[in-house]
Amino acid sequence: MKAITVSGLIILAFASCAYAATMTAEQMKSELVGHPIHWKSKTQSGVTTYKPDGTIEATVEGDKATYKGTWAIKDNKMCEKFDKEKCATINSLGGKKYSKGAGTFTVE
Predict the structure, then answer these.
(1) 51 Cβ neighbours under 8 A, 6+ residues apart
(2) pTM, whole model, 2 decimals?
(3) Judging by DSSP bridges, how do beta strands 85-88 and 55-60 pair with one another?
(4) What 3-state DSSP class applies to 8?
(5) pLDDT value of position 42
(6) pLDDT(90) > 60
(7) Is the CB of residue 22 less than 8 Å from the CB of residue 91?
(8) In the predicted model, what is the mean pLDDT of residues 62-84?
(9) Of 108, 98, 88, 82, whose CA–CA distance to 40 is shortest?
(10) Does residue 108 sit in helix, strand or coil?
(11) For residue 99, what is the enclosing H or E element?
């Protein structure tokens, strides 16, 4: 009985990974730019918008400030610069759900 349960969990793990696909630069531009992105990390959540002019605005839940910076796509990675530039691969999880680093987000 335990063998069936373990093998079932392994299949589920592979099935969930199969849906995560690294996004290309063109996919990021068409699916993310210009849309409010609701994100959640291990410690925070908020809303970010990548604007078509290369600027970015972000709010963090519980913080009244709006953070402004710039964004660019380099080597199929989304790069954000508020004070220091950070780049990360974005994976499509299907539908309008995505992952970036340890966080996940949904696009409106």
Answers:
(1) 33, 34, 57
(2) 0.76
(3) unpaired
(4) helix
(5) 87
(6) yes
(7) yes
(8) 94
(9) 98
(10) coil
(11) strand 97-100
Q: At 22, list the tokens.
A: 């690294």
Question: Residue 35 to residues 14, 52, 68, 106: CA-CA distances in angstroms?
Answer: 30, 10, 16, 10
| Burial per residue of 10-30, b for 16 or more beta-carbon CB atoms within 10 angstroms, e otherwise | eeeeeeeeeeeeebeeeebee
Convert the pLDDT of each residue in 49-67 to its tens digit.
999 999 999 999 998 899 9
Residue 77 tokens read as 């990675």
Cα–Cα distance for residue pair 28/78, rounded to 1 Å: 8
Q: Which CATH class is domain 22-107?
A: mainly beta
Could you give the CA distance from residue 51 to residue 36 in angstroms, rounded to a whole number?
9
- Residues 45-54: b if buried by 16+ CB within 10 A, e if exposed: ebbbbbeeee
